[in-house]
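Design job #97: recover the sequence.
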């Protein structure tokens, strides 16, 4: 088998949100290595430009909560790539605050970015996805979708909502569109820098999971690749924890 036929996403066109940083950026990189054309989307215009230039792929700066902007972005990305076969929704925000102190504006924003954002992107991409025999949607939720943790009421609600949104659309959009959720544990990205930069917190977080380490973006990217290619061709509506053995206890 030559190198080209080994690529798992050869010829596929995939839009990735949150692509300026962390998991979204790493997913875009892996997908390009696997032969995909990737449209990178993020609201961090500077980070996005750098990530897209490094990959030689097109990018669109866009806030996923802005439905009109998302509609225009997805239409332009679909035109630019000549179609969209798959989506990865990785854009997200986190505010860990005890419920008594949780600002209602922060609740609103977490639901808008983490839940309504993916809704906006999927809705806008549907005309493209529906024209494809094997389209894929991958949503990045969190172990917070599966289990309660202190201070995560808004984040957990948004991610649990995203998990059930994914299951529901898997029912509605099959058989040609598959939709799955990834539920990462603690992964070393900008979002969790406050945790892993502190040796004590880092050790405590690693100690409480079976595999005794924090996750890397590559751990999540490989799961996103699985859900975006035919290796997962009979799998839809599931959520996969990528958490080193945390959420099942
Ligand atoms: N890092 C973790 O431990 C962890 C664990 C579980 C789930 N997650 C989820 O994984 C996803 C990726 O997070 P990450 O850890 O790579 O964090 P990150 O902060 O490195 O990346 C998130 C990206 O989303 C972008 N973004 C945020 N709001 C946006 C908006 N309104 N419109 C467009 N882009 C927006 C940011 O600019 C950033 O580039 C998020 O959905 C996050 O909730 C992270």
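Job complete. Output follows.
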């Amino acid at each position: 088998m030559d190198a080209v036929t080994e690529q798992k996403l050869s010829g596929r066109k995939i839009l990735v949100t949150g692509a300026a940083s962390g998991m979204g950026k790493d997913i875009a990189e892996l997908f390009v290595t696997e032969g995909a054309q990737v449209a990178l989307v993020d609201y961090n215009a500077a980070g996005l430009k750098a990530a897209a230039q490094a990959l030689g792929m097109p990018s669109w700066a866009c806030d996923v909560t802005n439905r009109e902007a998302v509609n225009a972005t997805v239409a332009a990305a679909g035109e630019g790539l000549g179609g969209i076969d798959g989506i990865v929704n990785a854009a997200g925000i986190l505010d860990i605050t005890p419920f008594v102190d949780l600002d209602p504006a922060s609740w609103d924003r977490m639901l808008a970015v983490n839940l309504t954002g993916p809704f906006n992107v999927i809705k806008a991409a549907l005309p493209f996805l529906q024209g494809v025999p094997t389209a894929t949607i991958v949503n990045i939720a969190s172990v917070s979708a599966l289990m309660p943790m202190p201070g995560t009421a808004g984040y957990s609600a948004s991610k649990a909502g995203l998990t059930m949104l994914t299951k529901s659309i898997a029912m509605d959009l099959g058989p040609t569109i598959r939709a799955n959720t990834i539920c990462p544990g603690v992964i070393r990205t900008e979002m969790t820098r406050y945790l892993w930069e502190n040796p004590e917190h880092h050790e405590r977080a690693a100690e409480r999971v079976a595999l005794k380490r924090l996750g890397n973006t590559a751990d999540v990217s490989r799961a996103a690749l699985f859900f975006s290619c035919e290796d997962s061709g009979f799998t839809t509506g599931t959520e996969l924890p990528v958490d080193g053995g945390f959420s099942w206890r």
